[in-house]
């Protein structure tokens, strides 16, 4: 898969580089913020190789690419350069949600890894045969590893917040590390001894939670460092306006640290702690009002929030809950939604007779079931087919309600998948709470699967199997489109062509840089980079002529087109000219691959073998 080509196609169809204000990515999506959404061609992008779907929500033009998103994103960033980091953005609700997503999304893999380790350790601690294991240094070390992301949360959040707010990542991390330092932690928790900085009082406070008293600490906290980085970003930009550039490297970070340390301890730190407790109190009040209602709403609508990217805005609530109380219920209810999406996708896979739909749905179901990543299931089939999405919402709401009734909780902050299931039976969690969690996710998963299978769905046009045209009894010969030495396609140094995944054909090492029409037909595709041509021949064959390996990177340099897409061509008519020596000098393989892409419409397709060929020699033989 040519990720550079995919990235180029996506950027072209979102309106070009000049229309991209900002781009980020999460597990499965490229998240574009565009200057003008009307310039983006949603329909074309949805049919680009590697793209699953396109969603426009939350002020973002979201291109869903699944597991390949990181590689595509890297190519997108190379093409866009630094422009995505230099645009001044107007503050709005959409921008706030976007920044929250940018801050918390990068932490999810580490949180998921922590949840996996916690689950395994919890399972070991509950089994009689592993009683001795919990007292070993191995258990202590692994348990510490699972807590690192939470204990040093201010440092990690400082980094991601600085990236999102475009200020110094190192200085932000220094602030986060300062709040976690053992000396500062001990000073803040020593409520009996007053402390000051520059004569200002360092605020310390004890809170009563239930029957216990908790002295606040900045370790594991969420809100204080976010407020601190916001102020740091403003201060940093202000200082750079007045301090000469030659002195900025020393004075800006120095002044920032001197100013931010007292602000962190006297103002934003305490305010952040209070805000965190208020958020936790509000959430717990709503939950206490009706756990059943809370479970129903979150379990049913979490998947809908994923569609709009709004679920990221809820993560701070769950993380804050863990930091303050040591448990959270939000991720339990979200688990019901995750498993319901997996079940609905499995129902699609079992019900559909289309091989492509089965493959997409199965992959989505597996991703959601194992690790709780639901985007492939949602965008790959459930949302596209509509009814499975409705079934998932219903089953998720029912599973969440069951969890609410049983007061299911998570003792950490683990993503919801079968691999992290034991993290919901950690220390302080009763067996009955864990049972209600298991029943909830089971009802969500199997309920959505069965409901989807019974209700059914109507496959969209792009998911229905195409009716194949079979050319029975018609034998076809195809001439060489380029002069050179022909050899088997399976010997090509490119896995995609060599595996014949695109179809059977022939490879030719060219001695002349000119591609001719091998038969009469139509130019169905001519890539802007001119390295690949699609031909629909009058004899029924469909050809892909690919010039060189990875030559898309040349962006058309060394290529000249002789025809346009849609043109009729006659046998022997020049289509594209290319500079063989120039392409070689730039380090690219010049092999031309000629592939019959609709070979399944015929009995067999075979190549001539190894031989020197000219434009009049037959090189591909098709048996009808």
Automatic annotation (TrEMBL):
Membrane topology: Multi-pass membrane protein
The entry's keywords: Cell membrane, Kinase, Membrane, Phosphotransferase system, Sugar transport, Transferase, Transmembrane, Transmembrane helix, Transport
Compartments reported by the entry: Cell membrane
InterPro entries, per the entry: Dup_hybrid_motif, Glu_permease_IIB, PTrfase_EIIB_Cys, PTS_EIIA_1_perm, PTS_EIIC, PTS_EIIC_1, PTS_IIABC_b_glu, PTS_IIB_1
A GO term from the CC aspect: plasma membrane
Domain PTS EIIB type-1 positions: 4-86
Domain PTS EIIA type-1: residue ranges: 494-598
Catalytic residues (positions): 26
Span of domain PTS EIIC type-1: 98-467
TM ranges: 103-121, 141-162, 169-188, 221-239, 251-277, 289-310, 389-414, 434-455
Predominant cellular place of this UniProt entry's protein: membrane
BP GO terms, sorted: phosphoenolpyruvate-dependent sugar phosphotransferase system; trehalose transport
Any one GO molecular-function label of the UniProt entry: protein-phosphocysteine-trehalose phosphotransferase system transporter activity
Protein name: PTS glucose transporter subunit IIA
Gene source species: Candidatus Fimicola merdigallinarum
